[in-house]
Design brief:
The structure holds two protein chains of two kinds. Chain A is an alpha+beta fold. Chain A has eight helices and 24 strands. In chain A, about 15% of the residues lie in helices and about 25% in strands. The radius of gyration of chain B is 19 Å and the shape is globular. Classes of the chains: A alpha+beta, B alpha/beta. The interface between A and B is medium-sized, with 20 and 23 residues.
Chain lengths: ~575, ~375
C-alpha cells in the first residue's frame, strides 16, 4: 500500500522528486509533500547490472509497462528506481517509483506507472546499485474516444537467433514515427544447437542454453540470450511492444495440451507450458490480463476512434490438436480459439463497431486465408470442400472456427477488418472470403465478396524458401491455385509498416538484403492497402509517407554512475 | 371454407381468453396488499404462475387431439394460466394466407376446450414451401403474425404479435413476475437459405440478436424464460446447435444450417440471464442439464405435441429426463424461488396419458436482492 501511495502521489502531483541532483529539477513550487523515503541500496561493486536493456509495452492512454532486468550475482531483492520524463534529457521528470528485483521473477522488473498524458512519447530509465540503465522511449496510446487521424505500427514475427542477425529489429528501431511495434509471435525458438539454425553462423550466434529448452530455467536463459542481442535491445529501447506468443515460445506446433516438438522424454507438457508461459511474462513487457491466469493473453488496445487492435492467442489457450486428415478439419467440435476466446472476440468485434472504431485489426499468429492446391467451390454442409489444404496448423485446419469468425464479420456487416499474421516466414496479401473458389461468392477479378483482408508478415530471421527462384515458382503456382491471393514472397526476411488513416489501412513490406551479417540495407518490396469500406486489397506503388515531426528517438547515453 | 361456417365456428368456439393482466391494478382493494399484481393466485402468500408447454403441434391429427385432451385434464386438475408452443404450429408448409384453413384445423379445433392464451413461436415448417420444412420461405411465417391481428380469427387464443417478441406476466409493468422471450430461429438455421435478403443474418439475424439481447438484459422480470424452435442442445435427431442435423447436412445448402451462429445467438442473449429455455424441433421430451455456456438455465425440449420421434443419442448431453416414442407436454408452476416441472406422456395411438417425470427445483438464477 505504501508503494502504491507513493506512486500515486508522485504521479498525480507530477512531482520531480529531486532524488537525483544530476537531473536538476528540484521543484521550487513550495509544496510541503513529505518525500517518500527510498529503500536502502545494498553494497555492490560489480559492473553495470543492466545487461539486458530496457523495454516497454502494452500501452494504454495513461499506463505503459516498463521493464528491465538486473544482473547482480549474489544479491536478491534489490531495489530498482524508475524515472519517467517528457524529454530525452530527463529534465522534466513526471514520475518516479521503485520496485524490487527478485529471484522468483528472474530479477526482472515490471512496472505499470500512471502517466499524465495519452498519446504522448515519454522517456524513462532505471537506476539501481549505483548505475543507470540505458535510456528508454515509449508512448501512451490515445484515449479510446479521441479523434486520431493517423497511426503507424511496425509488424514483426519469427525472430530466430541462430538463423541470422536481427537487422529487421535494427531497422524498426530507427523509425521514429511508430506508435508501437506489434510482435506476432515466435519471439524465441525452443531448439537446441544444430536443430534449426544457419550453420555458417554457429560460432557467431551460439545458443544458450546449448540444448532444447524445457525447464523454467532453460526458458529464462533463452530469453536472456535473445535480450543480449544489440538490435533487439535497441528496438525495445525505442518503442513499446505489443506481443502475443506463437508456438515456438513453447515448442513447435503447440496446442492446448501438447506440441509436435515435445516428447515424453522431456517430461510433462503441462509443466513445460507452465514454465514457458511464466518465463514469457517475466521477460516480455506484457500486462497480465488476469493476475491468476497467465495463459490468457488475448486482449484489446483502442487507438482512439481510429482502430481497435484485438490481439488473439491461436496457440495455447484453446487450440485443439492439429488435424491429420482432411475430414478432421471440418469437425465442428474442434476449435482454434477455444469457445471462451471466440465469444470474447465476437463481443470485442461488436464493441469495436459500436464504439465507432474505424478499423478492427486482429493481431494473431497463423494464416486465416484458405491456402490450397486449387481452390474449388465449398459448401459448409459437406465434409469435404474448398480444395486440398496445404497446412493444417493454420486456420485451414479449423474450418468451423474460421467460418464462425467470417460469419460474424458478415452478420455484423463489419467493414474494415484487417487480419495480421506471422508464423510462416514469408510475405502475403489476401482477400478474405469464406469461399474463395466459388465465383458466386467471391470475384477474384475485382474482389467482390471479400469480407476482410489479411496481411502476412515476413520473418525477422527465420527462413522460408531457399532461393528467390523457388519462391517465384511457388508464387506462380499458388497464385493460380488461390484466386484470393494477391501477392506472396517466400524468400525475403523483413518487416511490415502498417499505416492507418480513416481512408486506408496500408501495409508496406520492407525486405532485408541479408541476415547473415549486421546490415542496414533494406529495400521497399511492395505495398497493399485496403481502402475504407472496400474490404479487399489493392496494390499501391509507393510506401506510405513517414509522419512529420515525430518525437526524437532516445539518444544513446553513456552509462554513468548515479550521483548520490 | 365459407364465411358462414367461419362465423358459426367463431361463435361456437370459446373466445376471449384473457391474457393475465400486466397492469398492477391490484385486486381492486387498495392498501394492505404488499405484493403488486394481486390478480395472481397466491399460495401461502407467494406469487405463482402455471403454464403448459407443447411444441411441433400443427398436424390436426390424432396425436395433437390426444395431447390436447390430456392437457384439458391436467389443466382441470392443477390449473394453468397460459400455454407455450415452441413452433411448427402448422404442418407441413405453414400458412399460405391469413385465411389458411390450417389455423382452424391445426390450432383452433384441437384446442377448442382449452380456454387459455397460447404464445407461439415460429418453426421451420411454419416458414417452408415444401414438406421438407426447409425453412426458405419466411414470408409464410408472416401470415401467422397477421393472424394474431386478424379480425377473422376464430378465437383470441393465438398470440404471436411479431416474428420474435416478449411478453410479461404478473407483477408490475416495471417488474413483471415473469417475462417470456420468443426467438424466431428459422432464418438463423434454415436448411436452405431464403433467397429474400430480408432474412439474411445481416438483415434479420443480427438485428434480432441485438434487440433480444437488449430486451433480456434490460428486463427486470423476476423469472426470465426463453422460447425458440430449434434446440440449443438435444439428444434427438436434430442434435446440438453448432452441429445440427449431423449426417443429414450434406443434403442442405443453408449457410448456417449447422447452427453455430445460432448457438452464439442464444448464448449472447440468454447466458446467465434466462432461468429456462424451451425448444422443440425434435418430436420427443427432454429435460437437459444446464450447460456452462448458457449459465444455470434449465433446458427443456418439448416437441412431442403431435408427432413422435425416438431419442437418437441418449448420451449426447446429460439429462434429467428424456423420453422418445411418445407424445406429451410439460406443465410448469413457478413460485417465487422454486419451480415445479412435470412431464406428461400421451399415447399417440390410444390417448392414455400419465405423469412420466416430475421435479421441484430452485430457481436457477438467484437475483441479487433489490435495494
Amino acid at each position: 500500500m505504501k508503494r502504491r501511495d507513493f506512486i500515486k502521489g508522485s504521479a498525480m502531483a507530477g512531482l520531480s522528486l529531486g532524488l537525483l541532483s544530476a537531473c536538476g529539477g528540484e521543484s521550487s513550487s513550495g509544496n510541503n509533500l513529505t518525500q517518500p523515503s527510498l529503500p536502502n541500496m545494498p553494497a555492490y561493486d560489480g559492473p553495470n547490472p543492466f545487461q539486458h536493456g530496457v523495454a516497454s509495452g502494452d500501452p494504454w492512454p495513461r499506463q505503459v509497462i516498463l521493464w528491465t532486468r538486473l544482473t547482480a550475482p549474489g544479491l536478491d531483492e534489490v531495489p530498482v528506481i524508475v524515472e519517467v520524463a517528457t524529454d530525452p534529457l530527463m529534465v522534466n521528470v513526471i514520475y518516479q517509483g521503485f520496485d524490487y528485483a527478485r529471484s522468483d521473477s528472474d530479477f526482472t522488473i515490471k512496472m505499470d506507472p500512471l502517466l499524465p498524458e495519452p498519446d504522448t512519447t515519454y522517456y524513462y530509465r532505471f537506476n539501481s546499485l549505483g548505475f543507470y540503465s540505458p535510456l528508454g522511449r515509449t508512448r501512451t496510446s490515445p484515449e479510446s474516444d479521441a479523434v486520431v487521424d493517423r497511426a503507424r505500427f511496425a509488424l514483426v514475427s519469427c525472430s530466430n537467433y541462430p538463423y541470422g542477425y536481427f537487422n529487421a529489429y535494427r531497422k524498426v528501431a530507427q523509425r521514429a514515427d511508430l506508435s508501437a511495434v506489434i510482435h506476432l509471435g515466435d519471439y524465441i525458438y525452443e531448439y537446441g544447437p544444430g536443430e534449426y539454425e544457419d550453420a555458417k553462423l554457429k560460432s557467431q550466434r551460439p545458443l544458450d542454453p546449448p540444448h532444447p529448452i524445457v525447464t523454467l530455467e532453460d526458458y529464462r536463459r533463452r530469453y536472456a540470450l535473445y535480450r543480449g542481442d544489440m538490435d533487439l535491445q535497441e528496438c525495445h529501447r525505442q518503442h513499446p511492444f505489443i506481443c502475443v506468443w506463437d508456438d515456438h515460445e513453447v515448442a513447435d506446433n503447440s496446442w492446448r495440451e501438447g506440441a509436435a516438438n515435445h516428447n515424453n522424454g522431456q517430461g510433462d507438457y503441462a509443466d513445460r507450458k507452465r514454465a514457458a508461459v511464466r518465463a514469457y511474462h517475466e521477460w516480455m513487457p506484457i500486462r497480465a490480463v488476469l493476475p491468476d491466469d497467465l495463459v490468457r493473453i488475448y486482449r484489446t488496445f483502442d487507438y482512439g476512434q481510429l482502430l481497435s487492435l484485438i490481439m488473439l492467442d491461436t496457440r495455447l489457450i484453446g487450440r485443439d490438436r492439429q488435424a491429420t486428415l482432411p475430414h478432421e478439419t471440418r469437425d465442428p467440435n474442434r476449435t482454434l480459439l477455444g469457445l471462451e476466446q471466440e465469444r470474447w472476440l465476437f463481443d470485442e468485434m461488436e464493441r469495436s463497431q459500436s464504439r465507432g472504431a474505424h478499423w478492427h485489426i486482429l493481431g494473431q499468429q497463423v494464416m486465416m486465408a484458405h491456402l490450397t492446391l486449387g481452390a474449388v467451390i465449398d459448401n459448409p454442409n459437406w465434409d469435404v470442400g474448398g480444395g486440398i489444404k496445404i497446412n493444417y496448423d493454420q486456420w485451414d485446419g479449423y474450418y468451423h472456427s474460421r467460418k464462425a469468425v467470417l460469419d460474424r464479420i458478415d452478420a455484423l456487416a463489419l467493414d474494415n477488418t484487417v487480419v495480421l499474421t506471422g508464423d510462416i516466414h514469408s510475405s502475403w496479401a489476401f482477400d478474405l472470403s469464406p469461399d474463395p473458389g466459388n465465383l458466386f461468392a467471391y470475384n477474384p477479378f475485382n474482389g467482390d465478396g471479400s469480407k476482410a483482408v489479411e496481411f502476412v508478415v515476413p520473418a525477422v530471421s527465420s527462413p522460408a524458401a531457399p532461393t528467390k527462384g523457388l519462391s517465384d515458382l511457388a508464387f506462380a503456382f499458388l497464385y493460380s491455385a488461390n484466386p484470393h491471393l494477391k501477392w506472396v514472397d517466400l524468400f525475403h526476411r523483413g518487416y511490415v509498416v502498417l499505416d492507418i488513416t480513416p481512408e486506408h489501412c496500408q501495409a508496406d513490406w520492407f525486405h532485408l538484403k541479408t541476415v547473415q551479417e549486421r546490415s542496414n540495407e533494406e529495400t521497399f518490396a511492395r505495398s497493399y492497402q485496403t481502402a475504407t469500406g472496400r474490404n479487399r486489397v489493392s496494390r499501391v506503388k509507393q510506401p506510405s509517407a513517414p509522419l512529420p515531426n515525430p518525437a526524437p528517438l532516445a539518444p544513446r547515453l553513456l552509462d554513468q554512475e548515479v550521483v548520490a | 371454407m365459407t364465411m358462414d361456417r367461419r362465423r358459426f365456428l367463431r361463435n361456437l368456439l370459446v373466445s376471449g381468453a384473457a391474457v393475465p393482466a400486466l397492469s398492477a391494478c391490484g385486486g381492486g382493494s387498495s392498501g394492505s396488499s404488499t405484493t403488486p399484481g394481486g390478480d395472481q393466485p397466491m399460495l401461502g402468500g407467494e406469487r405463482r404462475l402455471r403454464f403448459l408447454a407443447i411444441g411441433d403441434t400443427g398436424t390436426g391429427g390424432a396425436g395433437q387431439t390426444y395431447v390436447a385432451k390430456a392437457m384439458e385434464q391436467v389443466m382441470a386438475a392443477q390449473g394453468a394460466d397460459f400455454v407455450l408452443v415452441t413452433g411448427d404450429n402448422l404442418y407441413e408448409e405453414g400458412a399460405t394466407s391469413v385465411a389458411d384453413k390450417g389455423f382452424l384445423d391445426k390450432f383452433e379445433l384441437p384446442y377448442q376446450n382449452i380456454d387459455l392464451p397460447f404464445f407461439l413461436c415460429l418453426g421451420n415448417h411454419d416458414n417452408a414451401c415444401t414438406p421438407l420444412g426447409g425453412g426458405s420461405c419466411n414470408k409464410r411465417g408472416d401470415y401467422q403474425v397477421e393472424y394474431h391481428y386478424s379480425e377473422q380469427r376464430y378465437s383470441r387464443k393465438w398470440n404471436m404479435p411479431d416474428r420474435y417478441y416478449t411478453q410479461a406476466f404478473g407483477g408490475t409493468p416495471e417488474q413483471p413476475f415473469m417475462e417470456l422471450f420468443v426467438v424466431d430461429s428459422n432464418p438463423l438455421t434454415s436448411f436452405y437459405d431464403d433467397p429474400d435478403p430480408a432474412y439474411s443474418w445481416q438483415n434479420f439475424g443480427e438485428p434480432q440478436r441485438k434487440l433480444m439481447q437488449q430486451w433480456v438484459h434490460s428486463s427486470r422480470a423476476h423469472w426470465k424464460i426463453a422460447m425458440s424452435h430449434v434446440p440449443y442442445v438435444s439428444n434427438g435427431k436434430h442434435g446440438n446447435a453448432g452441429n445440427l442435423d449431423d449426417g443429414l447436412r450434406w443434403l442442405f445448402t443453408g449457410k448456417n444450417a449447422d447452427g453455430r451462429q445460432y448457438k452464439h445467438f442464444l448464448e449472447s442473449c440468454f447466458a446467465n440471464q434466462a432461468d429456462m429455455l424451451f425448444t422443440g424441433h425434435d418430436h420427443n421430451m427432454q429435460w437437459l442439464e444446464p450447460r456452462p455456456a448458457l449459465g444455470p438455465a434449465e433446458i427443456i425440449l418439448t416437441g412431442a405435441g403431435a408427432k413422435t420421434d425416438s431419442i437418437k443419442d441418449a448420451k449426447r448431453n446429460p439429462v434429467r429426463f428424456q423420453q422418445g416414442g411418445q407424445c406429451g407436454f410439460v406443465w410448469v408452476e413457478l413460485y417465487e424461488e422454486k419451480m415445479w416441472v412435470q412431464f406428461y406422456n400421451v399415447d399417440p395411438k390410444k390417448g392414455h396419458y400419465e405423469l412420466a417425470y416430475e421435479q421441484v427445483c430452485a430457481k436457477p438464477i438467484m437475483a441479487p436482492a433489490l435495494a
